[in-house]
Model the fold of this input.
Amino acid sequence: MIETFQERYENRHEYAKQWKEKTGGKVLGYFCTYVPEEICYAAGVLPVRILGSHEPQDVTEPHIFAMYCPFCRDCLAQGLQGRYDYLDGIMIAQSCLHIRQAFTSWDLHVPTDWSYFLPMPHNVQSPRAVPYLVEELKVFKKALEVWTGNTITDDDLKRGIELVNRDRQLMKQVYELRKREEPPLSGLESMYMVVSSQLSDKEDHARLVEEALKELEDRTLGRPIGQRLIILGSEDDDHEFINMVESCGSTFVIDDHCTGTRYFWDEVSLNGGDPLTAIATRYVNRVPCPTKDWPLRTRLPHILGLAKDWDATGAVILQQKFCDPHELDIPAIKSALEEQGLTTLFLELDVTVPIGQFKTRVEAFLEILDEDDLF
Amino acid sequence: MAKYKTAPLKSWQRAKEIRTEYYQNYAVAHEKGGLRWAGGAWTFDAIPAGLGDDVYPITSEPYGATIAFQKDFSDRCLEATERAGYARDLCAYMRNYWGSIILNEYGWVDPGEERKPFPKPDFVWQDHICCSHAKWYQVVSDLEGGIPMYCIDVSVGPYEHTTEHGLEYLVGQMHDGIEWLEKTTGRKYDDEKLIEAVNNTCRSTSAWAKVCALNQAIPAPLEEKTMYSLYVLGTLQKSSKDVADFYEELLAEVQDRVDNQIAAVENEQVRVMTDTQPPWGFLRVFRYMASKYGCVSVGSLYTFALIGNWIWDDEGNFVPRPTPQSQGLVIKDRDQALRVLAEWELSKPEWQHFYHPKYKSDMMIQIAKDWKLDGVMLHYNRGCEGLSLGIAENRLAILDSGFPVMVFEGNMGDEREFDEARTTARIDSFMESLDVPKLN
Amino acid sequence: MITTGIDVGAKNVKVVIQEDGKILGKGSVLAGLDMGAAIAEAFDAALKDAGLTRDKIEKIYATGAGRNEVKDADDSYTEVGADAAGAAHLFPDARTVIDVGAEEGRAIRIDDRGKVVDFAINERCAAGAGAFTEAMARALEVPLEELGPLSLTSTKAVAMNAQCAVFGESEVVSLIHQKTEKQDIARAVHDAMATRITSMARRVGVEPPVALIGGVAYNPGFVDSLKRDLEVEVMIPDGPEFISALGAALLAAGMAK
Done:
């Protein structure tokens, strides 16, 4: 059952193509989790996140200077290599500069019918952000209507909100189970569940999660849990890496990254209000990407809270090579975690990683944690 | 016998004075009960001006560049920052700046004097468009034990699509910022000073653009290395009367040079432009180009438009933007001042590529045409993700439009990442490909 | 006109003596610490090979990273210009020239007159150059000249990071520990190099026919990986490491561009 999520992740293109065939609807590829999927669903469009394939490539160098993160180049490579030919449109919500280039180069060089740049505000700690975003969402909604030929009513928006919220609520329930002394699923399996949500129709995905929850009730991993770890980072769908760490005598019980909780943690609170305002509020107030986490670092208390509530003893801090926003936060996060008594391991990711070398460091890290346990 | 006559710039002395006073004033601000603050070069410095005449800023990027010029000091700053756990691929200006705080040594040193301790700002007043902007100062605050900080997000989309709600967002943050300034400093805000500062901002940024436009002349009256020392004043404090006055005087002098065919490079035979910040520790590369090949860099979109404001006019020409004041506008109150400031700054050409490289490519191609260039030299600058954003696509677009392009890698603020020998070799290759005869 | 081209490279000094476009003699000497001595030695070797005395040489042009060390040079050209001149002379149809040497990789687009239209250089990452294969051969404990033929016996492609030589080397170590077959690792090494070179070449656009020059062209494993990556055939001249020197000599004779 849990394997379905992995299959979904591995067969993302087939899934989207089949959806297109079945529904005759449009598929919109998006580049950042700040994209308001609720509105896409309201328009009858399937939003799917564009991800890389973790393979070395040689097609992006003319387009993106090598100083930018491997993830954005990996994403662009997929487009240039024709793997996303079935997309009807692409979209990005303004967040970091690196991924923005994947979007703009794609816009320039990969034939696409429709592309949209949503100026998601960065000053989310200002009271001016929500009113601004509401206006931008109105513009976006209009553009979607023109593109799809569908009118988006408030009821459509409410439906979209409920759809996406439902999936979020279910994922939160799954994550609650990971608080157990014996979490019923591994970090890798959870990652597959979250990522597959980014690649699937939410209704379909929610159904799968509901079924999975039943199975998870009595499930155990069938191995010692080992050290309980939190994984932090930017975009980390490196399954090979996550699997390796968990095979060394540990389990990821919680995370903060955008193929993890940052994606689904916060719901839209409708409360009988205007749907676009509710959506704007959610995206402004959600757990932030570091590019939007200023002047206060609100991510810090959030992460410390997660580590505490899920009883993590160690933190693996992953970062995409060259990722400036995260690099700016990592020293502060590291100290705060260590002050709270967690041991941290910091690693840099590329599209492929030297698994052997990383394994040595992970083993050393786990040894430290094991020794801590003895005291 | 040189091809053209040359002459040193008379405005030089004044430019140096303004810059020296600026860094000194910041350092001694407290001595007479004044305030000092820090922010980025793009910050709305006109706004804190409303707190009084004794309020002195320091802007981060020029400060980082000032450090970068002093290679030994820069190396120490960079190492100190790395030891503190900050990654090497972060913006080099930031790393220089933080290093100077960690070492507690002020980057500005008066000739013959000892380095003073780094003067801590009373508050931070920043803008945010590139990912690092606001976060830079989070780290500054961490390193200094906490400093009150206010940042204005300006990323509302390209100027040609400016919306009322986008302006509202900026102006709203500005209004909130003024309240914050009053609360933080305990001072009463003076709207008259704000209005004057906004008028100065428009004046200085439009005068600088006009200076750059004069470089369309053959021979070019200015070359880029000199222009760096001139545009920097606008990055220090574009809202200052001294800076605005200076640019207007400079404009007159440069016009005079054009009228008298006074060249920056006496044997000018090939014209290029660059892009992104130069490798600050290695500006002699410009001298190399001039002396070996008679190659003048007439500037760059960066030099023209980091603070200069330009616009596409109705006939599709790329021209210095006329100020609203020059068209009869008189600012009457705070809200209007903020609105004019926001709208004026949103047209800044160096903000456009944040939304799509095509905006910048179009401007660069126009500059290549109007400034009559033979080629373009792009600095793939590892030190600044904001200005290197999309540069590979700019390159493709410029090549497509028919101009030869050369690329060199480097770092504006970290001299360890610049290979002078290899860069001059590339320049040689580029000049060979353009069939430029060597001068001696 | 009998002219000489002296290519002072990172590792070797190469000299070519030519007349009317024909190579009369060649010499190659390890650069070492005494550059001046190496240059003189290489020049002498070329003269001996050509059966000529020094006074017969009418002009000397220098190229290569150390071109300013050639005291007797009448002029110098960068490797980009010299590569283009040499390759265009041997392959007048070539439109793209790829030069992979010890420390640099270059891609040059030339027009139908052999003139440089655009160029790209890989200098930051040793992954694109001969030094990388040397390091990898050491890591695999295989003599350098056997690395290429070994990789050709591989039937399995193994992904290897192509961005950075340091990462690449640690990946080889990982692969060895994972008991990956030597020939597959060898192939992965060449694939990684080829990916870097292709990446760079794409910056200038790969327009066939493509000429491949530089010492690394002797490595059949690399050539195979490169052809697969570029998806075109590559033309390799005899003595590929001498093409830069040849180009300089041709430029000296006014025979290029």
